[in-house]
Design goal:
Residues 16-125 form the Trs120/TRAPPC9 fourth Ig-like domain. By secondary structure, this protein is mainly β. The protein has one domain (2-126): Sandwich (Immunoglobulin-like), CATH 2.60.40.10. The protein is built from no helices and eleven strands. The chain has strands at residues 2-4, 7-8, 14-18, 22-30, 40-49, 55-56, 63-66, 70-73, 81-90, 94-104, 115-126. The radius of gyration is 16 Å and the shape is elongated.
């Protein structure tokens, strides 16, 4: 489950926010399997989509994280969940997207890391209303 500014998000919803206001972000990973899973690392990567096949990930002057954009999740037991809570601060107006990725965070493995990517979240940062 993904909540932006307290609103549940999916790939069909555009969340609007105001430039300069912290926007709360919550990502909840629920383990529906019959065994424990983890450890994981959760990474949130913002980008802009230029609608021509180009994604701009160089946004350090447009977006900042309040806290970290990476969160370590230890083992999650069956039917339990783990929640990441952070915030984003948009410095300019525009349409932005968030790639939210989980990857195995176990250095003892010999296989490559496996990734689970959630659908991108669309956020529109707008000028504050006077």
């Amino acid at each position: 489950d993904i909540l932006v500014d307290g609103k549940v998000c999916d790939c069909d919803i555009v969340v609007t926010c105001q430039v300069g206001d912290p926007v709360p972000l919550q990502v909840k990973l629920t383990n529906w399997s019959k065994r424990s899973v983890g450890p994981f690392a959760l990474t949130v990567v913002p980008y802009q989509d230029y609608q021509n096949g180009v994604h701009n990930y160089d946004l350090q002057d447009a977006i900042t994280f309040v806290g970290s954009n990476t969160f370590h999740i230890d083992t999650v037991k069956p039917t339990k969940d783990s929640v990441y809570v952070g915030a984003l601060l948009f410095l300019y107006t525009g349409d932005f997207y968030l790639n939210i990725k989980f990857h195995e965070d176990n250095s003892s493995r010999e296989l490559p890391l496996s990734w689970l990517c959630l659908p991108s979240v669309h956020i529109r940062a707008m000028e504050p209303v006077a």
